[in-house]
Amino acid sequence: MPKGYIIARVTVDDNDAYMRYAQAASIAMKKYGARILARGGKYEALDGDARPRNVILEFESYEQAKAYFNSSEYQAARAHRVGKSIGEFVLVEGFDGPQPGDH
Known about the structure:
Blueprint: E1 4-12, H1 15-31, E2 35-39, E3 53-59, H2 62-70, H3 72-81, E4 85-93
Antiparallel strand pairs: 1-3, 1-4, 2-3
Helix pairs in contact: 1-3
């Protein structure tokens, strides 16, 4: 089964509110089995606009990632972020098949 990924690109306007969001979201991440592949750190715009906060979460499935985002735990965390940051959050299904160069 292909994995699910949530990719977030965020510009934070209120650091205190965003920290409350991040703490609360971490509880939901643990409950739904999120694996953090990227969070903050070095970034570079290769094409188009960039945002200074970038996060990639991996879940066992697309459905699990969607359940996390729609959960009451995450939505409560999200309330700290809305209006205090600007961003894009995308749910992406992983590729489940041979990769180029596989034999």
